[in-house]
Amino acid sequence: MKKAEEQTIDVSPEELLALVERAEEGKLREGDAQLIAVIVKLIIGLHSELLEKSTSIKRLKKILFGSTSEKTAKVLTDPECEPNAEETTKDEEQTDRGEKEKPKGHGRNGSDKYTGAEKIRVDHAELKSGDPCPVCPNGTLYEFRRNNPVVKLRLIGTAPVQGKAYELQSLRCNLCQEVFTAAMPEGSGDEKYDGSVGSIIAMLKYGSGLPFYRLEKLQENAGVPLPDATQWDIVEKMDRLTYPAADELVRQGAQGTLVYNDDTVMKVLELMKENKEIRKDTKDKSRTGMFTTGIISVVDGRRIALFYTGRNYAGENLGLLLLHRDPDRGPPIQMCDGLSQNIPDGFATMLANCMAHARRNFVDVAEIFPHECRFVLEILRDVYKTDAIAKVQQMSDEQRLLFHQRESRPLMEKLKSWIEELTQEKKVEPNSSMGEAFTYMLKRWEKLTLFLRIPGAPLDNNICEAALKRIILLRKNSLFYRTLHGAHVGDRYMSIIHTCYLNGVNAFVYLNALEEHSRQLSENPQLWMPWNYHEQLDDRANENTA
Predict the structure, then answer these.
(1) Residue 299: strand, helix, or coil
(2) CA of 325: how far to CAs of 201, 312, 319, 336, 394, in Å?
(3) Is the torsion defined by CA of 139, 141, 143, 148 positive or negative?
């Protein structure tokens, strides 16, 4: 609703009561109409201000307590906007009555999901293949279900890092006093800390956000002490062996046809000390912000995750990444939100803006403007449904583009015309929350609708937002990095771990392989990526058996 133009008239309460009496008697005087108009505009303005305050409070509640859901059905709670009873599906009716059938298995994991469990073959204690059947006189037993055996799982709770204490027998001569100590068993290793220790610490710290000091307490309680300083020494040493893999991810990530980028704040104590010196000098205009940038690059259908911590914005880090790009490659599609700091300087990209950010502006005011928001959210819901269908049917980028042009373009054109009509006819106050939501969308319309013109352009930046949750989890638990060096070590581990996650690869097993074959990794890092390192392991296994 449009706010009233500012106009004030000094009037006392007595004069207002007299105006009411004249209105009731039908004896309005000259000037009363102008006074009534001012009062009405004042009420409208106050109502609009109250709506804005209510919206701000709701946003604050979301920041403090989190948002339960942004799904259209949950956001649109206005009674007049609820679906008709006829539109309720049979499944929804069953859900309301609690009769919906539970899925088979009730969410339990099958034995095939336990890929990390040790497999132990158990042969029959009394029978073997080729023996006569103990039940029928003429039958002969043969191996049954060899490739699909009966599996019984037994899960054991242990500390993340376990230990073995080898008690070596010592013998001494009673005459010469020479001491003879038993040798370590073959295959037990020469180092105190196996390579897998660094892998599990990295997974817990940079994959799950568990601080070193918490793991120290856990290990202490389990009877296998592992001080936090020792943990850092282990992962830093392992980083010196595995960094070629992270560098290769950067090189290959720079060749992406589609890149997502965004950043979030991250504290680094070393930089915070610098900030104190910067603030002392009033003439020093150096940047004091600290950020971690997340970049997801899509290369030949594979997704590569990259993280950068420091003072650079997301756009500056993307620019540094694109320095490694093959000059013969054309500009990539870039997906980000509407902030200018996400755009790289000196590099051309086909810029797309995040539809989820534009949609969220309407979600925030849905309770205040239910009818208007319903129109917007339902159109965007249909667009997302079209995109979901394209993914389910595994359409190519060109097929998906044609599908969106046929299904989504009329919806988006209808939405734009409707917003422009309300804006031009001044049916919405430009400075209100609704007006700002309209302005945000219209200002970025071409970038928001790039998916209607360019094959492969995505709808939103959600995949990058999800990647940044790794650093947000680390920030909530560990609060900060101590040094920039420590931050860069964390960035490399996060890049490797999240890239494995995006490609369905076991990151723990992969890190073990990199540590064990670090020499081969440094010679040919492109052969030791998460999606092809198994080929190298298979080749070496064949060489050993030949």
Answers:
(1) strand
(2) 33, 19, 10, 19, 28
(3) positive
CA distance 501 to 496: 9
Please give the Cα distance from 172 to 165 (Å, whole number): 22
What is the DSSP track for 441-491? Answer: HHHTHHHHTGGGTSTT--S--HHHHHHHHHHHHHHHHH-EESSHHHHHHHH
Give the number of other Cβ atoms within 10 Å of residue 80's Cβ: 7
Cα three-residue angle 515-518-523, rounded to 5 degrees: 155
| C-alpha–C-alpha distance, residues 415 and 435, integer Å | 15
Question: How does DSSP assign 59-128, residue by residue?
Answer: HHHHHHH--S---HHHH---GGGSPPGGG--HHHHHHHTT-PPPPTTTTPPPGGG-TTSPP-----SS--
What three-state secondary structure class fits 217?
helix
pLDDT in tens, 28-59: 887 788 788 878 777 766 666 666 665 556 66
How far apart are alpha carbons 461 and 334 in whole angstroms? 10
Alpha helices, H only, 125-221: 195-202, 212-221
- DSSP helix/strand/coil, 268: strand
The C-alpha torsion from 390 through 395 and 398 to 404, rounded to 10°, is -10
Confidence of residue 530 (pLDDT cuts 50, 70, 90): very high
For residue 83, what pLDDT is reported?
A: 46
Assigned token pair, 192: 């105190």
Which residue matches tokens 């006829």?
Answer: 86
Give pLDDT tens digits for 183-215. Answer: 988 878 788 899 899 999 999 999 999 999 999
Cα–Cα distance, 96 to 100 (Å, whole number): 8
Contacts 24+ apart (CB under 8 A), 388-395: none
Question: 297 φ, ψ to 5°?
Answer: -115, 135
Residue 6 CA, distance from chain mean position: 46
Question: Which pLDDT band holds residue 426 (cuts at 50, 70, 90)?
Answer: confident
